[in-house]
Design goal:
The chain is α+β, with helices and mostly antiparallel strands. It contains 22 helices and 10 strands.
C-alpha cells in the first residue's frame, strides 16, 4: 500500500491527462488495479518457486542437524515420523493455492486507496498539481484548498532547509513511509523479546527442581499394566527410604527432596482426576512468595484444610476464586472418602515446582489427609540436586539404582530439558526471524522506493540547484538528511512502541507458560541490529542514488520533464 500510495501521488498529472482525453473515473481506477495485479501475477509464481526452494533447503538443513544428534537428544525432539520422507511431504497443492489467493487478496486491499485517489483526480487541478507536495486536494472542489499544497520557502537556502522543504511538503507520504517501516520494527521487537526471554538455560531451570527427577510411572486404565494405577502404586511405592539413601550415596549428589502427591476427583469435570501436591518445608518461602492473590501461611497449609490453586489451572477453570470451598473424593487404596478444603490463595510458580498439579499444600497436610491408612505412600517425586548440571557418571549411577527399584520409575534430567529447549528455540527463533526478516526486506524496499521516487520527480529541481552552485557533496548530504529523517523516525517508533509492546507480550507469554518464560530480558541485541541495518541501508542508498544522479549531465536533468 505504501509503495503504491507514494507512486500514485506522483502521477496525478498523468491521471488528469487521461481524464482530459475521455477516460472515466472507473477506467482510471481499473488501470491502477490492473497494473497492480499484473505485478502480483508475475511476483506470486516467483515467490512460490523461491519458497519451495528455500523450504527444501531449510528442511534438509534441519534433517542434517537432527541426524547429528545423539539418541538421547533425538528422543527430546520426537520427530522420527516427520523426518521419515516416506510418511511426510513438505509440499501440498492446497498450500500453494492458499498462498497465491492470500497474496492476490492482500494486493487488492493495498490498491483500494490508491485507486480511490486516482479516481478523484480532477483534470484542472491535476494540471496545477506540483510534484513534491501532499496530494490532499485533486478533486477541484475548492480553490482555496490548493493553497495548502504550496511548499514553504526560505530567503536563505541551506542543505538542511532544502531537505525540510521536501519532507514537510510531503507530510502524509513521509508519515506513511515511516509508519509502514515502523510496524515491522515493532513486530520484530515483540518477537525478539519473546526469543530473548526464552533462554534455554533458564527454561530448563524452570522446568525441573534440581538436576534430576525420579518418579513412578503412573497410568490410568491400562489393563495390561494395572501396577501403574495410582491406587496400586501407593501400596507398593518404588520411591522408598532405601532408594533415597542409595541416591544420596552417589558421588556428586548433594541432596534429595521428597515431593508428595494425591489424586482426587472433583466436581469441575466428571471423570477427570485432579491432583494436590505436597510441597516440603524447604520450599515454603518459594511457595508463599509465589502467591498473587489471597493470603495463607505455610503453617496453615499443614492442616490439610487449605490449598493454593496454581495460576495455570485457572486457564481451564477461570471461575475459581479465593475463598471457594472445594469438595473432592480421595481413595487411600482401600476405601474412598469425601473431603473439603478451602482455596486460600492463587499462586504463580515455575513449572518444576508444581509439574501441572492443580493444587498445592504442605507435605504435612497431605499426610493428615491420608492419615486413615498409615501404609499409604504418597511420594511422587525425588528431586535431586547435584554438584554439576550434567555428569554422565552420576546419571549412569542413578539409572542403575532405578533398575533395581521395586516398580517402574522414570528419570527426567536438567540436561535433557536444556537440549530440548535449545533445539526448540533454535527452530522457533530461526523461523521467526526469517519471517520478520522478509517483512523487514519489504519495508526497506519501501524506503528505497520512496527516496528514489522523490529524487526522480525532483530531477529538474535538483539540476537547477546544482546549476546555481550546489555541489555533488551537498547533494549527497541533502539526500542523507532525507534518508536519516525516515531512519530516525522509524527507529523512534520501532524501539519505543516495540519495547512497550514487547513487555506486554512477555507478560502474556509468562501468564500462559509459553517457552517456560519467567523473567524479562530486554532484547538489546535486536535493538542494535535494527539500528545498524537501517543506518547502513540508508547510507548505501544515499550513495547509490547520488551516483545515479551524477551519471546524467546537468543539462539533461534541467531538461527533464514529467
Amino acid at each position: 500500500y505504501s509503495i503504491y500510495y507514494v507512486g500514485i501521488s506522483e502521477r496525478v498529472k498523468e491521471f488528469g491527462r487521461l481524464k482530459a482525453i475521455g477516460a472515466t473515473k472507473r477506467q482510471v481506477k481499473q488501470s491502477v488495479l490492473r497494473e497492480g495485479m499484473c505485478v502480483a501475477m508475475a511476483a506470486v509464481p516467483l515467490g512460490l518457486i523461491l519458497g519451495t526452494i528455500i523450504s527444501g533447503i531449510i528442511y534438509k538443513a534441519f534433517k542434517m542437524y537432527y541426524l547429528s544428534k545423539s539418541d538421547i537428544e533425538k528422543q527430546g525432539l520426537s520427530l522420527e515420523n516427520i523426518l521419515d520422507e516416506a510418511n511426510f511431504s513438505l509440499y501440498h497443492l492446497w498450500i500453494y493455492l492458499l498462498a497465491a489467493a492470500v497474496a492476490l487478496f492482500t494486493v487488492y486491499l493495498s490498491l483500494k486507496m490508491p485507486m480511490r485517489i486516482a479516481g478523484k483526480v480532477s483534470e484542472i487541478e491535476a494540471m496545477r498539481f506540483q510534484s513534491g507536495t501532499d496530494n490532499n486536494n485533486v478533486s477541484g472542489k475548492a480553490d482555496k484548498k490548493v493553497k495548502k499544497q504550496e511548499r514553504k520557502s526560505y530567503i536563505d537556502l541551506t542543505i538542511k532547509r532544502l531537505s525540510q522543504i521536501y519532507l514537510m511538503g510531503n507530510k502524509k507520504k513521509s508519515i506513511i513511509t515511516i509508519c509502514s517501516m515502523a510496524i515491522t520494527g515493532i513486530f520484530f521487537m515483540a518477537v525478539a523479546t519473546v526469543i530473548s526471554c526464552a533462554d534455554p538455560y533458564k527454561s530448563a531451570d524452570n522446568d525441573i527442581v534440581g538436576q534430576y527427577e525420579i518418579s513412578p510411572v503412573v497410568e490410568f486404565n491400562n489393563k495390561e499394566k494395572p501396577e501403574h494405577e495410582w491406587s496400586n502404586i501407593v501400596k507398593n511405592n518404588p520411591l522408598t527410604d532405601e532408594m533415597k539413601k542409595e541416591i544420596e550415596s552417589v558421588k556428586g549428589i548433594k541432596k534429595v527432596d521428597i515431593f508428595e502427591l494425591i489424586y482426587i476427583d472433583t466436581d469441575y469435570v466428571e471423570g477427570f482426576t485432579d491432583t494436590i501436591a505436597g510441597i516440603p518445608e524447604e520450599y515454603k518461602d518459594e511457595l508463599i512468595n509465589g502467591i498473587i492473590d489471597g493470603k495463607v501461611s505455610y503453617e496453615e497449609l499443614k492442616s490439610g484444610d487449605k490449598v493454593i490453586v496454581t495460576h495455570a489451572y485457572l486457564h481451564w477453570y477461570p471461575e475459581i476464586k479465593v475463598g471457594d470451598k472445594l469438595k473432592y473424593t480421595i481413595s487411600d487404596g482401600e476405601d474412598t472418602y469425601e473431603k473439603e478444603v478451602e482455596i486460600a490463595a492463587i499462586g504463580d510458580y515455575a513449572f518444576g515446582l508444581y509439574n501441572y498439579d492443580a493444587f498445592l499444600m504442605a507435605s504435612e497436610g497431605i499426610d493428615k489427609i491420608c492419615s486413615n491408612n498409615p501404609n499409604y505412600n504418597t511420594r511422587n517425586y525425588y528431586h535431586i540436586y547435584a554438584e554439576e548440571d550434567y555428569n554422565s557418571e552420576t546419571q549412569k549411577a542413578l539409572e542403575e539404582i532405578m533398575e533395581s527399584a521395586s516398580g517402574d520409575v522414570q528419570l527426567r534430567t536438567w540436561k535433557q530439558l536444556y537440549d530440548d529447549w535449545k533445539s526448540a528455540m533454535l527452530i522457533t527463533g530461526t523461523a521467526a526471524y526469517l519471517f520478520v526478516g522478509i517483512l523487514g526486506a519489504i519495508c526497506i524496499m519501501n524506503m528505497i522506493n520512496t527516496m528514489i521516487n522523490s529524487v526522480h520527480v525532483r530531477k529538474k529541481e535538483i539540476g537547477m540547484m546544482q546549476a546555481i552552485g550546489m555541489s555533488d557533496k551537498q547533494l549527497i548530504k541533502m539526500l542523507r538528511n532525507e534518508g536519516m529523517f525516515y531512519t530516525i523516525g522509524t527507529l523512534l517508533l520501532s524501539i519505543t512502541i516495540g519495547s512497550i509492546l514487547g513487555y506486554f507480550v512477555f507478560l502474556w507469554a509468562k501468564r500462559d507458560g509459553m517457552f517456560s518464560i519467567r523473567e524479562y530480558y530486554y532484547p538489546g541485541k535486536a535493538v542494535l541490529i535494527i539500528v545498524v541495518v537501517l543506518i547502513l541501508v540508508q547510507f548505501a542508498l544515499t550513495l547509490m542514488i547520488g551516483k545515479s544522479i551524477r551519471k546524467q549531465s546537468l543539462i539533461d536533468r534541467i531538461r527533464f520533464s514529467e
